[in-house]
Amino acid sequence: MLGKTPMISSGSTTHFRRRDYVKITIFGLAVSALWGSLHSVILPLRLLDFVAESQKNTYLGLLTLTGLLLAMAYQPIAGAISDRSGFRWGRRRPFILVGGVLAMVFIPGIGLVESYAAIFAVYCLLQLSTNTAQGPYQAFIPDLAPEERRGLASGVKTLLEVVGGIGLVYIITFLGNRFLGDGAWISLVLALLVALMLGGMLVTIITVKERPGIPGPRQPFFPTLLKSYRIDLHRSPGFITFLVSRLLFIMALTTLQSFALYFFRDTVAVANPTRATVELLAIVGVGMVGSVYPAGRLSDRVGRRPVLLSSGIIGAAGILFLLLGPGYGYILVGGGLQGIAVGTFMSSNWALATDLVPRTEAARYLGLTNLATAGGAALARLVGIGIDFFNGYSPGLGYKFMLLVCLAYFIAGSALVFKIKGRAQPNQGTARSPSEAR
Q1: Contact between 173 and 278 (Cβ < 8 Å)
Q2: pTM
């Protein structure tokens, strides 16, 4: 057990201790491990059992596009229901329990199915399950973390997601490729993901102390659904610009992650493309681990925008390394720069999100960030069609197209950072509520 000190509402640092930052973010490790494993390695390998080699990028893109569109539409609804719930043990944890249990039911299906249609269905059900939990879970930082330390809390959240999404994947893939065949390896990975989901869910439910939920007034079902997507520009004037900027950053990062394995197989002379992909992810992970915590702390001190802008510049530099530098070594250096960019972006961007959202609707608004997160991840998959198209004209041309598109995403996303209205330095002056400080 991670201590017995009850956590109190946001705005006080007296009873919010270091271990509490881990308590409110540990579930993200399990979710990140799940999707990092599926999107980077498991799904690309599994699809080779069902689809033609020449169409692998297209089928992977369409599969993940559909699932992510479901996540994009559903997460704000789950968040809105959580905001209005009145459960005795809190507004967030009941949804984490339900979503976590459903995810554990569907995870093994990724390895058991024997057709593209079946894996398509399981993937979509898994998206709905995890987002039932993830929408409410994301509101823990604005609910519970002190306002002046949300950058730090976002840094801890991102650090745990890195450990889950990259660090663990590297370890289990290295052991799997060394000691097991592909089928046994996938079964091992899925079993470990179920165990991680169970552990993250139980730790969160047991250790996080919420106040009892206060249910809102009952409204008809369909009007409630429509209001899940409403953005109040008076309360959050910069939120839409924030979403577009986040969308572009996510599209750049996800494009690189999604097609890295095929990029190695088709353009880089390595003996084991799967292992090379995992090594690249490990380099990315080192860059992320080294940057997430300092970036979160720095954003509390100097503001979110300067840190966000630096992440875009570093990301663009990494793309240029991948585009212009030949050989595996250059790719690893570019990957390290991408890792630093990702870590810096994820910490400072999420801290900015918690600044912009209204306190009373934190889960719904942070669920709306999934319009950018899942939406960007979904749109990034469409680049797979362009990769196959240009590769048809000249081998490797499609991957150059991919890198140029990512460079454009970073530049445009960075430019929009300057347009986001709202506070960039939350600690200046006297402490105020989020809505007042903007």
Answers
A1: yes
A2: 0.72
Write the burial class of residue 97 (CB in 10 Å: 0-12 exposed, 13-18 middle, 19+ buried).
middle
Burial 2-19 (b: 16+ CB within 10 A, else e): eeeeebbebbeeeebeee
pLDDT at 385: 87
Give me the domains of the chain, ranges plus CATH numbers: 18-211+234-421 (1.20.1250.20)
What distance lies between CA 377 and its chain's CA centroid? 9
CA end-to-end distance (rounded Å), the chain:
38
Contact (CB, 8 A) for 40 and 186: no
- CA angle at 158 for the pair 152 and 160, rounded to the nearest 5°: 105
Q: How far apart are CA 334 and CA 427, in angstroms?
A: 35
DSSP reduced 3-state for 249: helix
- The pLDDT, as a whole number, for residue 7 is 43
Integer-rounded Cα Rg, in Å, for the chain is 21
Residues in the chain where the model's pLDDT stays below 70: 1-14, 167, 169-183, 212-226, 269-271, 273-274, 277-278, 325-326, 422-438
What length is written for the chain? 438
Rounded-to-integer distance, Cα 274 and Cα 270, Å: 10
Distance CA(225)–CA(135), nearest Å, equals 15
- Pick from 315, 371, 372: which is nearest to 343 by CA? 315
The tokens for 92 are 């967030």
| Integer Cα distance of 438 and 436 in angstroms | 6
280 to 116, 208, 230: CA distances (angstroms)? 28, 35, 40
Q: Alpha helix locations (H) across 38-181?
A: 43-47, 56-83, 93-106, 109-112, 116-137, 140-144, 150-162, 168-179
Distance CA 288, CA 159 (A): 8
pLDDT tens string 52-107: 877 887 888 788 888 878 888 888 888 888 887 778 888 889 999 999 999 999 99
Instruction: State the number of CA atoms in the 13 A half-sphere of 337 facing the CB.
Output: 17
Ramachandran area for residue 213 (φ above 0: left; ψ -120 to 50: alpha; else beta): beta
pLDDT in tens, 393-415: 888 888 889 999 999 999 898 88
Element of type H or E holding 270: none
- What pLDDT is stored for residue 170 in this prediction? 67
Task: Give the HSE-up count for residue 403: Cα atoms under 13 Å, Cβ half-sphere.
Answer: 20
